[in-house]
Design goal:
Helices cover about 25% and strands about 20% of the residues. It is α/β, with parallel strands linked by helices. α1 packs parallel to α11, α4 crosses α11 and α5 crosses α10.
Length: about 525
Amino acid sequence: MSDRILSARSEPGLDGLRHTSFDVIVVGSGAGGAMFAQQAARLGLSVLVLEAGSHHLPGQMTQREGDMLPKLFYDAGGRCSDDGAVMILHGKGIGGSTVHNTNLCKRAPDEVLQRWVHEHGCTGWGPSELAADYAAVEEELHVTWLGEADVNRNNAIMRSGVERLGWKGSLLRHNRQGCQRSGFCELGCAYNAKENAAKIVIPSAIQLGAQVVSDARVIQILHDGKRVKGVVAAALGEDGQLGSKVALSARAVCVAGSAVMSPALLRHSDVPDPHKQAGRSLRLHPGVAVGGRFSDPVHAWKGIPQSYECTEKLQFHDGAEDRCWLIPAFAHPGGFAGLQPGFGKAHAQAMRDYAHTAVVAAMLHDESRGIVSANRDGDAQVHYELTQADAKSLLRGIHAAAEILLAAGAEQVMVPLSRPLFARRVQDLASLLDHRYRALDPLLTSVHPMGSLPMGSDPRRSVVDPSGRHHQLHGLYVADGSIFPTSIGGPPQLTIYATGRKVARTAHSDLRSQS
């Protein structure tokens, strides 16, 4: 089915679609866009999917950072907030971030979904109401629990520490089949073992009649201020330059380009926003990785990267001090080197400890609100500052990550503050909870942007309604993590897939009623 994905760089490219009109154009082919396209095509709509990134086949996954980061991530993995304080990793290409994620599959917590319903008026999003969509996604993507054979030493070390502390932890569910446990999930799977959007959902959408075009950047949503008319798109060259612009007409447009790219597109397109809500509530679920050195080799790069979680420090009620999800983490040599402190001999020693290092990351269920804007070319710009409460909660999570590693037997842990904190005992961490957070101290990393085009019943506080319809512009829908009213405190892919299903049904119903 991959040979039926067209590239806008090849003839006839977008020119071949110039005079074609569609029921719906989908912007983005990640979890939300792919699932929306599949479901809309299944319901009988004519669908065009436009993806800014390229189509990368398993045989092209070289397992080299220098090759794959520029192909699979925006800005070659170097995208960050405007002050450089938060690295923001999100995917481009057919399948979006599902190509490079680590296959974690977890439903949004019941507490979060109930809060969406009761505080934001998101009818239809309660745990019981979303259950059927979750179940359908899990069946289609072959989501299963991991077993003992799937726990590498890095994850086993974390589990040991969690159990010795008496904290809550468990194995996770993943969507992988035929996994070779090579450890290169974040650089794309050369073994085609990920049951993701690129492998499962996009081919299904094509079989159902959807057209899919890669290397096609949507520059603008066309509208008259009241109703969508289509999009303006252009081929995106390997050098990043845009080709000639092409206007494509559609009865509806579904934006599913990520919580960074989607609001930038809406703002660049002058989509009506009378209450100034678009792009002004970005949640980044920022994280900090703590390293622990062990006497025996860990070889944390081998095997399935993330098979275990700790939820001891993750609470969801207002004012909760502990709002961090704890998860094993690691990086390939280039990424690891970039996160190590010091220069010269000190940095070289850190790299010599590579094989003996285990890592636990604290990821914050954030309440801080970032801002996504667009420059004159439509490129996304992100501003994000932690609130004082979020900073304190994150420091508590970082402390917990260090505690886990010490309980597991680490000889020494390193907390990556601007002046690194080294600890051999829990008592050595005492100053951490009093640390004054500031930008770049510590450097934050985000792999789960969400919430920048929130849904809700009140147009004064939200961008789309609970069905994914834009409040002001008829025919515009959003089907990605942008519409989450809050952070979900965990991996979002299952909920984004489910979002695609729900919003597709809405679009189909609306278009059918207009026929």
